[in-house]
Each structure stands twice: as C-alpha cells, then as structure tokens.
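Morning F.,

Quick status update on the modeling queue. The single chain you submitted on Monday has been processed. Sequence for confirmation:
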Amino acid sequence: MNIGEAAKASGLPAKTIRYYEDIGLIRIGRDSNGYRVFDADDVHRLAFLNRSRGLGFSIEDCRALLDLYDDTGRASEDVKRLASEHLARIDARIAELGELRRTMAGLVSACAGDARPDCPILKDLASGQRLAAGHQRLRE
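Structure tokens below.
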C-alpha cells in the first residue's frame, strides 16, 4: 500500500510517517520507482507509534518501546520500568499544572473585573517575577 493508505490505516498523517522515517524510527521499503511501500507489519508499527505518542511517550521512549516489542526475549520488567518512568513524568506534570491552576485561580479571583483600571492580574504579570521552573516549561 502507499503512504496515503498507510496513513489512513494507522491514523497517522503522511507527514508524520515521513518524519518517523527521516529520524530512523521506522524503516519503510521502496518499490523500483522509489515510492514507499507499506505492508501490514508497517501499518501495525505505525499504529503502535500512534498509540504510544497518544499516551505521551517521547520519540526516544517510542524507539525503546519498539525495540522491546521486537525483542521476543524481552523481560516485561523493562517495559514496565519505561512505562513507570513515563507515569512519574505525567504525575509531575499534573502537579505542575495544579500549581499553575491555583496561581491563575487566585489571580482571577483577585481581579474585580469591573470598569476600573486597577487589575491584579496585570500587576502580577508586570512584576517580572519568573514562574517556577515547571511553570516556565509549561509555557514553552
């Protein structure tokens, strides 16, 4: 099948498939004219990547997961360790977002939201205080 068909079957955009090939995450066969040719295994791997990325795994985590998937002698503890590390990053992100939400909720509730020009939200933003490292990352 061609890249359009593989994209539809895997749920990934063709551009993403090309990117994954460019960075060596996947290897796709070519026909005599140089066009990409996908088989069922390729589509399965693409769907695997789609699901992995949908769960928030990084590209490097996906590379490791694919290697583990391909290794029939793998230990499930290796997979669990990688997933547990990812879960810890998710939990940290949730904590960061919770703190960010509390800060924003405090600012919003402190603002009268009326016709007067005084606004605690703008005062806070103008204070120039940097957000905590986790909050800084959330903005990027």
